[in-house]
Amino acid sequence: NLYSLNTYLEQLNEPQRAAVLQKDGPMIIIAGAGSGKTRVLTFRIAYLMEQGVDSFNILALTFTNKAAREMKERIGKVVGYSEAKNLWMGTFHSVFARILRAKADKLGYPSNFTIYDTQDSVRLITSIIKEMNLDKDRYKPKQILSRISSFKNSLITVRAYFNNSDLQEADLMASRPKTGDIYKEYVERCFKYGAMDFDDLLLRTNELLARFPDVLAKYQDRFRYILVDEYQDTNHSQYLIVRALADRFQNICVVGDDSQSIYAFRGANIQNILNFQKDYPDVKTFKLEQNYRSTKNIVNAANSVIAKNKTRLDKEVWTANDDGGSIKVMRTISDGEEGRFVAQSIFDNKMNNQLTNEEFAILYRTNAQSRAIEDALRKKDIKYKIYGGISFYQRKEIKDLLSYLRLLINPNDEEALKRVINYPARGIGQTTIDKLTIAANHYKKSIFEVIQTLPLLDVNVNASTKTKLENFANMIQRFQIEAQTKNAFEVADLVVKQTQLVKDLQKDGTPEGVSKVENVQELLNGIKDFITDKIETGEDASLPIFLEDVALATDFDSDKKDETPRVSLMTIHLAKGLEFPYVYIVGLEENLFPSAMSMNTRSELEEERRLFYVALTRAEKQAYLTYAQTRYRWGKLTDGEPSRFLEEIDDQYLEYIAPKLPEPSANRFIDASLFEDAPKKIRFQKPIQKKRKEFLSNKSGDLIPPKGKMKKVSEVSSKTNLFDGEVVVGNIVEHNRFGKGEVIALEGKGPNKKAEIQFATAGKKKLLLQFAKLKVI
Ligand code: ATP
Ligand code: MG
């Protein structure tokens, strides 16, 4: 099919084509955002196949499974779908889970091992902390898990931990001296339960390749061409796997952008890019610098920000695309208004430019920010989809059903067992479960084995509880027997019926209950689809494979069937590699973005800046940046200052726009002399001065502070938090300068609203609420 190949080659620029045609040997493509890295990788695979490389010999590692599917789809168009099917493609986790399954016995694991998701891991750590009688406020399960995760990703085994006094010292200093013991217990329990957590999938792969030269040789021979997308975000454990596998043929192609490295907090290491050049001295390096995604304004604005980072590899990103509109910056009074502005703007853009929901994305730094946005979108009846947050498979009713399925595949899976042993309720209480746990530890058996051999063991439970436990074990065993002859769907259906899981949910009767029943139904449908898909392609359609797919599903993988066009909402971390015509980046405030937790060191701040760079470079046509002067965070109203990233963007690419208020009021701009509480001197930069005049003459909305003077003006602007309706006579309020006082009278409306306040020390004052920055106590 050389014809289509050639036409495809014509859709590449010179350096892209050179990178595709460089068939053998180690190579690295370091390139800016939107410069076609992923496109080159995709086409390179098609090219390799055209050159006679067997599809079975190619391994491509991507950031999401969805990315892998899309690549396969495109490659299929060039080389034919039946060939593309054989490619090994997917995330590190899903590819190596497959390999571990095939070789599990070498590591002492059953081939039906369970994959623990974060929720399972946290539950297990929580119970270990409890059993060890440790203070759970000091030993926070999530923190401990992330510490353990960092050990695993650096290949620090339990033994290595106890040989490393620095690590132990660090945990001692953090008042968590038992961290190593928890780590040890956690690893042993996972092993006993036949479970691997996400990090194990990489750690154990390393173990497998290190301890068994024959296995290593087999996979080295198999994966003669290895390609890695988003290489800048691989961690040490992933780096070592790739290096080991590529060691024989050295046909390794990695692509990445150091400016988009955003997972250092999870152990990703920019150093991997630099190491690459050391590991393979004859590496060929390619640079792609032309951006095809975004307008000139967006590319240049992004460049002007990332230039502030000191640690960067040298490259210049440019584009031949149109200038496009300026990036719109928007200040709002509150997070609620921010949401309304974004919803209104999407609505207007759709109307004016004939667009559909899929063309919009709203990106934020933290998941919590989505709520205000969601409320506003719902009010405008704009359909949206949130990526991240609680995914379908993490919902309680879904996890419960999946736990039954997990348990019948692997009865040693203790987290699954604990979830369902008394759900739906069958009179097996926590005390009994505790007794079983102790017995299991004592007899070195799994809880399930303890239940099965109850009459032979010394476990102090009464006769009626014994019967209940036996009934439970018998039911699971029945499922196991059925599973030998039935397919995954039939088994799941049987489990739903026999456990009365849905009946229990139906009893509930609330709308949530109904939606839970629908979710269970949806899962059954999903299993059916899974079987049909797999049978079509001749792949393994068994229950363990389904459970593995579920465990490793990324946030983009679970929404296959929804066809309604929706606006995408997600954190910036999840948006990596994606593109949308219209992008709204919200919450550009100090302490939120950049995050308060990342302002201590230059390297942390630089990671936040890279994150901003990633966000901005997702936009094709138009980017909007918004910030709110006040925001509810942790249940409190907090004042916000514009993010430094706004100041860092070269002014020429920005345009400050006014919020379109629900009811535009002609009175928003009032004579400055009324502002008795405002600082005396405000100097506006030239272009803003002009804009300011425009605003005033149009009376169309709010004024946005000039860049450069952002902070100064925000001192004024951030005083507009209490504006209407929030202060009533009798309130005790606090003022920055005047201290505490009581509101004794109110007058005026909207922006003219004033409060007369009797301050404890400063006396009686009349203040314009819009600027007085009062806090109600
Ligand atoms: P990111 O850094 O965000 O991962 P990337 O470098 O992987 O981006 P791609 O996603 O491969 O970039 O490409 C960005 C956009 O530019 C895509 O829509 C792609 O189809 C388009 N593109 C890339 N190269 C070309 C080209 N030579 N001609 C036309 N369009 C191109
Ligand atoms: Mg990409």
Q: Note the gap between the termini.
A: 74 Å
Principal-axes shape call: globular
The radius of gyration over CA amounts to 30 Å
Q: What proportion of the residues form beta strands (DSSP E)?
A: 5-15%
Task: Describe it.
The chain has 777 residues and is of the alpha/beta class. The chain is built from 32 helices and 23 strands. Strand 15 (580-585), helix 28 (602-616) and strand 16 (619-633) form a beta-alpha-beta unit. Helix 1 (2-10) runs antiparallel to helix 3 (37-50). The N and C termini lie far apart (74 Å). The relative contact order is 0.10. Bound molecules: adenosine-5'-triphosphate (ATP) and magnesium ion (MG). Magnesium ion is lined by residues 37-38, 577.
List keywords for this structure.
777 residues; alpha/beta; six-stranded parallel β-sheet; 32 helices; 15% strand; binds adenosine-5'-triphosphate; binds magnesium ion; EC 5.6.2.4; nucleotide-binding; DNA_helicase_UvrD/REP; isomerase; ATP binding
